[in-house]
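Q: I'm teaching a short session on how sequence maps to structure, and I want students to see two examples side by side rather than one. Could you give me a first protein with its sequence written out and its structure tokens following it? Keep the formatting plain so it prints cleanly on a handout.
A: Of course. Example one:
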Amino acid sequence: MAVYDTLGTTYATTRQPDPRIAARIHAALGEAMDVVNVGAGTGSYEPPHTVLAVEPSPVMLAQRPPGSALAVRAVAERLPLRDDAADAVLAVLTVHHWTDLAAGIAELCRVARRRVVILTWDQQVFRDQFWLVREYLPEAAALDDTRATPIDHLATLLGGARQETVAVPHDCTDGFAAAYWRRPHAYLDPRVRAGISLLAQSGEATLAPGLAALAADLTTGRWQRRHADLLTRDTIDVGYRLLVADA
């Protein structure tokens, strides 16, 4: 069973693509005329010239909106495509779910004629800079310690790649892990947590003490006093990175 057969049921409502992040991803794809989206989920961030979406979860595939690119149920490690099938291959917040990272990256490189673009995150920066996991939910961060790939290692697997920082806007419309960094009450909503694999996979029992502490700090104003600097910022760098590798 794919991870998102159980975790992806709220994606259509909580994980709407953010236009500013979309612009960064589409710019990274450059002049690609056709794109394959791997780990495509519900279709967030797919450019109009996507020719195929690859996704293992039928739950996610069922939430793709009408008019989306043709989609096939398959895994990154075994793409049902010939060599050099598309100008570019895109993978957005998905590599940490693959069972064989090296095989999956090799497949992306095999299928891409010109460019591979991956959106992922730097786990050390995420741990250090994101208050939620640093102060309230270190147990959840420990889960990602086991599956996050160091950026430099990922770049090596790609045969070299440039790295671009993707800052998260304070009103981000895509509810991934750090999207609500300036809207802390959102993390108390189980519907929001259900759309964040880091939290959903950690389990409610594991999260309960940290969430109770967060709720208390928000009620007393302690969180607001501690993080007053965040309330004046429009964006934050918590480790999200674009890797762009040319064939």
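Q: Perfect. Now a second example for contrast.
A: Example two:
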Amino acid sequence: MINFSVNGKPQQVDVEPSMPLLWVLRDTLGLTGSKFGCGMAQCGACTVHIDGQPVRSCVMPISAVAGKQITTIEGLSVSGDHPVQKAWIEHNVPQCGYCQSGQIMSAVALLSQNASPSDEDIDNYMQGNICRCGTYPRIKAAIKSVAKGVDLAKNVGDDA
């Protein structure tokens, strides 16, 4: 049995210790917000936070998270009103949406480490998250709006 916490709730799973965290989240716990993209920690679609740090869950063995706190996109905000989630909506970031949970989790981690990132900081930090639709300018605009503390409700319809 492996004990850990997901989105503030204690969890106990009886799975192979080498099973990737992503599969435990999706298949065992039913938390499907984190996506499988590449299986090699290259695309970022599976990004979750472990003890506040962004981690690619597709290559993280469940045994490595024993006793740790996991936050998934589902746990970021119960009602979907985290400032980064709101910025994503206001800047029309998603197209296909597949990469968005990983993009959002990475953006939250960036802003928790650097509340006022430069364009270069954003580019460097987010470069490991691939968006097949190419919404990178919108992603950057959304991150910058949160960093600037913009009242997102006042910016509906504005171009970034």
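Q: What should students look for in example two?
A: Point them to this: The beta strands are 2-6, 9-13, 47-50, 53-56, 69-71. Also worth mentioning: The first strand starts at residue 2 and ends at 6.
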